[in-house]
Amino acid sequence: MSADERFATNPARVRHRSECHDRIARALERVSCRDALIRQLETRRVPAAGVNAMDEVFREPGALELVTTDSETGTTSGLRQVAFRSTAHERIESIAPPPRYGEHTRSILRECLGLTEGEICDLVEAGVVDDGKV
Fold it and tell me: Does the pTM of the predicted model rise above 0.85?
């Protein structure tokens, strides 16, 4: 495709997007091994990477240490997210799990907006806010 002027530049590929897409899709149908394809692309200096399924993600070194658990129940409660690391800051070893859906709704409405419990109940009942309770 690189020798074809319809695909030689990005503007040309955009003009011929449908045909470009179809040709790539047909070529990918012949691929049986993602890793082999990535190796071939790398040898041709084409930037490429695979997209991992979740089971593959957690086989990566260090992935399991990103999982957070609820200290009370021991159940999985979340996943430590990517964050900036610097030698100027200590690594936080213990991190609180993310809040459950609606967990802080009432306290935020009460403490930040000054609403009374009655006003909050009215908002919940009207479906304006959700406090996560069923």
Answer: no
